[in-house]
Amino acid sequence: MTLPAIEPDAAARPPRIGLLDTARGVALIAMASYHFSWDMEFMGYLAPGTAETGWLKIYARAIATTFLFIVGISLVLSSKPEVRWPSFWKRFGMIAAAAAVISIATRIAMPNEWIYFGILHCIAVLTLIGVVFLRFPLAITLIATMVLIAAWITDNFGPPGLLRSSFFDPRYLAWIGLAVTPERSNDYVPLFPWATPFFAGLSLASIALRTRLPQRLAALGTGSRWTARLGRHSLAFYLIHQPVLIGIAYGLSLLVPPPQPDPTETYLRQCNSTCVMQQGEALCRSFCQCTLEKLQGQSLLKPLQANEIDVQKDERVQTIAAECSAEAE
Questions:
Q1: pLDDT tens track of the chain, all 329 residues?
Q2: How far apart are CA 170 and CA 179, in angstroms?
Q3: What predicted TM-score, i.e. pTM, was given to this entire model?
Q4: Buried-exposed string 180-203: b where 16+ CB fall within 10 A, e elsewhere
Q5: Distance separating alpha carbons of residues 242 and 240, to the nearest angstrom
Q6: Whole-angstrom Cα distance, residue 24 to residue 91?
Q7: Could you write out the three-class secondary structure of the chain?
Q8: d(Cα 318, Cα 61) in Å, to the nearest integer?
Q9: How far apart are CA 108 and CA 106, in angstroms?
């Protein structure tokens, strides 16, 4: 009896880990639930800024962190014993094309908040960076990971603005992640700090391959569950789910129209959502409450919310912002 020959390359490849597919599938469901909260806010069922503040903000960041961590792991597993370039470029091309479609579609539909560097753009660029690091010794990847973690800690707990500069504010540089006030976008995932979970996945997977951990995880099964099957088609799900969810939210608005939002609450949420990108939450609450009272006192709140005032050029609004900034500090 003759045993079938096994190609050395196939034998050396890490096994498919169903648990990883399941984790990716669960993250997709979590992402869809968050996006539906954004859709409900967009249709008026939730107050403006709800999806960008509080626990939903933490939820969104946790989901993005999970995705990028898994992307780093998957890149390592799919590139051993060596990078299979046809598959790599096919996958990269699909992600890059999907990112371009999203940018074009949102530029048309939402010109003021279009997605110029979202999660797919970030994954595409990090994939190119990651495949280069796979050719380096593991020590280099570990050092890069430690540097990113140290930079993240410094950015969040060190002196304000130490790593950032307004030089990076324009869209063509904001994707790097060092902007002080980046252009508004409905999905902004710059390289910094989001390269951190990606490199963490890259490092941990590279270490794990030197042990029997991948084989042990593969032996756990779970690859047949619907969440695992969903995880194997993550890009298709990502592109399809949002049009479906926004359609559901729109249909609901026709059947049960949302209540009229309170203008005061709307302003405070929008103000805080924008402010916390640059400052601490406590300072932002003080600043936003101050500007609200002054805008109401000068009867400017209603025309401001109706877009009848150009915030960048109106001296009254600029004066109020300067006065409240001084008071908040």
A1: 444 444 444 447 888 898 999 999 999 999 999 999 999 988 888 877 788 888 999 999 999 999 999 999 999 999 988 999 999 999 999 999 999 999 999 999 888 889 999 999 999 999 999 999 999 999 999 999 999 999 999 998 888 778 999 899 999 999 999 998 888 898 999 999 999 999 999 999 999 999 989 899 888 877 778 899 999 999 999 999 999 999 999 999 999 988 877 778 778 877 877 776 556 666 788 888 888 888 888 888 888 877 777 776 788 888 888 888 887 76
A2: 8
A3: 0.81
A4: eebbebbbbbbbbbbbbbbbbbbb
A5: 6
A6: 16
A7: CCCCCCCHHHHHCCCCCHHHHHHHHHHHHHHHHHHHHHHHHHCCCCCCCHHHCHHHHHHHHHHHHHHHHHHHHHHHHHCCCCCCHHHHHHHHHHHHHHHHHHHHHHHHHCCCCCCCCCHHHHHHHHHHHHHHHCCCCHHHHHHHHHHHHHHHHHHHHCCCCCCCEHHHCCHHHHCCCCECCCCCCCCCCCHHHHHHHHHHHHHHHHHHCCCCHHHHHHCCCCCCCHHHHHHCCHHHHHHHHHHHHHHHHHHHHHHCCCCCCCHHHHHHHHHHHHHCCCCCHHHHHHHHHHHHHHHHHCCCHHHHHCCCCCCCCCHHHHHHHHHHHHHHC
A8: 32
A9: 5
Residue type, 116: Y
Length in residues, the chain: 329
